[in-house]
Amino acid sequence: MVAKATEMFIRSRVLLCSQRGEGFVDTAIKILMAVVIGALVLGGLYALFGETVLPTLKQRIVDMFNYGN
Questions:
Q1: pTM for the full predicted model
Q2: How far apart are CA 53 and CA 47, in angstroms?
Q3: DSSP characters for 5-19?
Q4: For 42-51, b where at least 16 C-beta lie within 10 A, e where not — what string?
Q5: Distance separating alpha carbons of residues 69 and 54, to the nearest angstrom
Q6: pLDDT higher for 10 or 37?
Q7: Please, how many CA atoms are within 13 Å of residue 49, restricted to the half-sphere of its CB?
């Protein structure tokens, strides 16, 4: 019983004193990377839709409703 209690005390002491884990700087860098990558992806999609997809779509709509020609 004493050996079991001593082992549990030592194990809890090691866990409480350990320096292992994730720091605030690591988390901040991960969040910053996610924001930057998300902004790049959204910027790329906006550029793609703004210059490629929307003008073609607009022309197709005009052609579809242009009954005179």
A1: 0.49
A2: 9
A3: HHHHHHHHHHHHH--
A4: eeeeeeeeee
A5: 22
A6: 37
A7: 6
